[in-house]
Structures are given as structure tokens and as C-alpha cells.
Design goal:
Protein name: Polysaccharide biosynthesis protein C-terminal domain-containing protein
Main location: membrane
Number of strands: 0
GO cellular component, one term: plasma membrane
Helix content: over 70%
Subcellular location: Cell membrane
Number of domains: 3
Structural class: mainly alpha
Organism: Candidatus Methanomethylicus mesodigestus
Largest sheet: none
């Protein structure tokens, strides 16, 4: 497998993640000029409920067709891919409609603020087509379409949000912008299907097969969604909408860092599914490379957490500790993420389920206790505990398939930026200078210790520029390489 192709596609997927998180951060930054953190807390609660409800009714369809499409892609069977996709979209939209109806009925039996119900119903239904469409573009490595739809929807959300909030719509304006952007994302991904694949009549057999194949990941995915959002909802319930709003923003910033390993290692899954050999080696390389990229970024934000948070106001800067705790997971999140893609590609569904529980059961168990005691910091600790337990689970499960995780290399890649950042945390170094020091020093030690080889850099470079361009830039890059690796 050519890793540079996966890297190139993961770049677009990372841009998609950045659009959903960084532009989301910009959205909240703008929104705070019109509304307080309490309104953002209410909006975060709605988004959390939507995420949990749609996950309950998803039945693992997107995961199922990711594997099915990956296998069909490996065989060059485009006809089957069309049947698989159309069947999955039809089933997913049907389930979303049922979910929206259930929420509408439940709201009549158990009253909640009336202004939230329309947004809940519309968002639940509009989300239905997104997972299977994203699964298709992931499997075909056309992740640029996901990035385009995500960026366009996020930009539109910011623009409309400003207009609605300026008009005085408050909470309604925040959520209306979310609804329009969600519909827009669907339309863009549907538009790019034209000419790329033949959409056929949905097949009951293909739909049921997508559920069958996806069921092993369904419960872990459901638990994962609960593990992510129960923290926000728990803070909302125990501490109120103000602290829920500040914690949610801290979580968004942390996700900007997390999205890199999730995009690269998650994208490995459909590629690994179509491979006959070299899966373990490819996973090992991708995991180490991702750790070397994400660890310095996380370290830089841990040292200067108030910088991004204070942009929204001093009320948000109070979540600095919660952000630091959340980012600790970035130093070992790549190991269980990469291993999950590997075992799913092998078809070891039981192991996928076990790892999913290892991720999220500790979070769900700890949330009620730690949130009640420490509020948003307790929610952050609970969330990070899932990564710790999942990593321990990988240390046991990897032996069963003879997979060498590369503990020493990944530990070194995670430890280097942490060690560099410790003195900077206590010294009065400006944040922009400190961040450069962390990134540059990490790159230097990665090269000198052989963690990242020149061949890795070459393959990463090929993901973004052509060979002729590399040859043209080689004289200029040689000095940098000499500094990093020595002459």
C-alpha cells in the first residue's frame, strides 16, 4: 500500500475535522459577542441529544458499508458499490425519520422547552444521509468532497449565525444556522455522487448486510457517542448551562487536536480492508507517524491553554485545566485508534466490540461521580480515562494477532514534546515563541533518534506535491534535512 495516498486523503479528512471544530470554535467566538455562555450551553445540550439519538438509531450502518465498500473497491466492483450506497442511504434516512418521530412523541409525554423540539426533530432527520455518504467518500479516498461539504457548511453556519444573532434571534438563531448548514452538507455530498457512481434501486439484501456487518461496531459506537456527549450533558445537568458552555468549547478545541489521529487512522480502515498483505506494518507506520505529528501540537496547547480559550472571554479561560486534561489523551490516543482499524479490517468483530467498551464504559461509569464532585474537570478526567483503559486493552489484545504495537517508539514520540514543554510551562516565554520551540525541538529529536526517517518524510511529501516538485525543492530542503538528521 502507498501510505502517501492515505496521507493525502487523510489531509482532506483532517481539513473536514478542522472545519467542524475550528470553524465551530470561530462560530462560538462570534456567538459570544451576542449571547452568553449559557446559551451556548443550551445549544451544546441540543447537539448532544441529537448525537445520542441518531447513534441509537444508526445500527452501525456506516461502519458496515465502510467495510463492504472497501472490499468492493478492492475488487473494482462499482456496480456493487452503487447498490450498497443507495441501500444504506435509504435505510439510514428511514431510521432517522423514525427517530425524529419518537423524539416528537416523547416530547409530548415528557415536556421540555418547546423551542428545542423543532430543532431536535429537523437535525435528527437531516443527519440521516451524512454517515453513509461519508463512508462512501472515505472508502474511495475521495475525502476532498467531505472536506468541501464540511467547510462550506461550516462557513455558511458562521455567516448565517451572525445574521440571525444580529437580528436578535439568540438561541433560535444559533440553532437555525446549524439546521441550514446540516442540510447544505447533505446536498453537496449528494451532488458529487453524479458521475462517480451509479445509484441504483435500494436492495433489501444489501441493506440488511450493512446492518449485519456494522452491528459489531454499533454498540461500541453508541457507547462512544454516549461517552463523548454525556460529559457535556452531565455538566449541563449538575453545574448548569454556563459551565456546560465553557466545557463544550474546551472539548471543541481538544477535538481539533484529536481529529488528526482519528482522520488518518480511521481512513486506514477501508484501505486495510482491501489489502491482502502488509496490514500490520502499514498500521504500525501510520500510528507512529501520527503520534509524532499530534503529540507536539497537544503539548503546545497544554502549555498555553488560555490563549485559544481567552479569545471567547475570561469566562471560557476558566476551563483551561479541563482543556489541559482533555489533551493528555492525545499522547496515546493513536495506539487504540490504529489498532481498532486493524482488527476491524481483519473482521475481528468481537475484538472491536471489546475495544469499544474499553474506550467508553469507564467514561460512562465515572461521569456521574466525577462531574458531581469536580464539574467540568471531572468530565475531562472521565473522558481521558477511556483512552487509558483502551490503551491497556490493546496491550493485551495485540498479542492474540501477533501485532507489534511499537510501544517504545510511540512512547518516545509522545514523551519528547512533553519533556521539552515542561520548562516552558514555568518560564515567561511568549506563547508564539514557546510553540515554535516545542515543534522544532520535537522534529529535531524525532529525526536524530530515528523515530521519523527520511523515507517517511519523502512519503509524506508525496502526499502533497509531485516528484518533480520535490526534486525542484530538494536543494532548499537539504539544509533543513542536514540540520535534522546531520550530514
Amino acid at each position: 500500500m502507498s501510505l502517501n495516498r492515505v496521507i493525502r486523503s487523510s489531509l482532506w479528512l483532517y481539513i473536514s475535522g478542522i472545519a467542524a471544530n475550528f470553524l465551530g470554535f470561530i462560530y462560538w467566538l462570534v456567538a459570544t459577542k451576542f449571547v452568553g455562555a449559557s446559551v451556548i450551553g443550551d445549544a451544546a445540550a441540543v447537539i448532544g441529544v441529537v448525537s445520542i439519538v441518531t447513534s441509537v438509531f444508526s445500527l452501525g450502518i456506516s461502519s458496515g458499508i465502510t467495510r463492504m465498500l472497501g472490499q468492493a473497491q478492492g475488487k473494482g466492483d462499482k456496480a456493487s458499490m452503487g447498490v450498497i450506497l443507495s441501500s444504506a442511504v435509504a435505510l439510514s434516512l428511514t431510521l432517522s425519520g423514525v427517530a425524529a418521530a419518537v423524539v416528537a412523541v416523547a416530547s409530548a409525554l415528557y415536556p421540555m422547552p418547546g423551542f428545542e423540539i423543532p430543532f431536535l426533530v429537523v437535525l435528527i432527520f437531516s443527519y440521516g444521509a451524512v454517515p453513509p455518504l461519508q463512508a462512501f467518500y472515505n472508502s474511495t479516498l475521495r475525502t476532498s468532497v467531505i472536506a468541501l461539504s464540511s467547510v462550506s457548511a461550516s462557513v455558511l453556519r458562521v455567516v448565517l449565525g451572525v445574521l440571525f444573532l444580529y437580528a436578535g434571534w439568540s438561541f433560535e438563531g444559533v440553532m437555525a444556522a446549524y439546521v441550514v448548514s446540516s442540510v447544505t452538507q447533505n446536498l453537496i455530498m449528494l451532488a458529487y455522487l453524479r458521475g462517480a457512481i451509479g445509484i441504483t434501486k435500494p436492495s433489501y439484501q444489501a441493506a440488511s448486510e450493512s446492518v449485519k456487518v456494522g452491528l459489531p461496531s454499533y454498540l461500541p459506537s453508541l457507547v462512544a457517542t454516549a461517552g463523548s456527549w454525556l460529559g457535556v450533558l452531565g455538566v449541563y445537568g449538575f453545574a448548569g448551562n454556563l459551565e456546560a458552555g465553557t466545557y463544550y468549547v474546551a472539548q471543541v478545541i481538544a477535538y481539533i487536536v484529536y481529529s488528526l489521529p482519528l482522520s488518518l487512522l480511521g481512513l486506514m480502515f477501508p484501505v486495510l480492508s482491501g489489502m491482502e498483505d502488509g496490514r500490520k506494518r502499514a498500521t504500525n507506520r501510520a500510528t507512529l507517524l501520527t503520534t509524532a505529528i499530534v503529540a507536539p501540537l497537544a503539548a503546545a496547547v497544554i502549555v498555553y491553554p488560555r490563549i485559544p480559550l481567552s479569545l471567547l472571554g475570561e469566562a471560557y479561560a476558566d476551563s483551561s485545566l479541563a482543556l489541559q486534561i482533555l489533551l493528555l489523551a492525545a499522547f496515546f490516543a493513536t495506539i487504540p485508534s490504529g489498532f481498532n482499524s486493524l482488527i476491524y479490517a481483519y473482521g475481528k468483530y468481537r475484538s472491536v466490540t471489546v475495544l469499544g467498551f474499553a474506550y467508553n464504559v469507564p467514561r460512562i461509569v465515572l461521569y456521574p461521580f466525577l462531574v458531581a464532585i469536580w464539574g467540568e474537570n471531572g468530565a475531562a478526567i472521565s473522558y481521558v480515562s477511556g483512552f487509558v483503559v483502551a490503551t491497556l486493552a490493546v496491550s493485551i489484545m495485540s498479542r492474540g494477532i501477533g501485532y507489534s504495537v511499537g510501544w517504545k517508539q510511540n512512547a518516545a514520540a509522545a514523551a519528547i514534546p512533553l519533556i521539552v514543554s515542561i520548562p516552558l510551562y514555568f518560564l515567561p516565554v511568549p506563547w508564539f515563541a514557546g510553540a515554535v520551540v516545542i515543534l522544532a525541538a520535537s522534529a529535531f529529536f524525532y529525526a536524530r533518534l530515528g523515530l521519523i526517517k527520511k523515507s517517511d518524510l519523502a512519503e509524506v511529501s508525496l502526499a502533497f506535491i509531485s516528484k518533480s516538485q520535490i526534486q525542484h525543492l530538494q536543494p532548499y530542503a537539504r539544509y533543513v534535512l542536514d540540520v535534522l538528521y546531520g550530514k
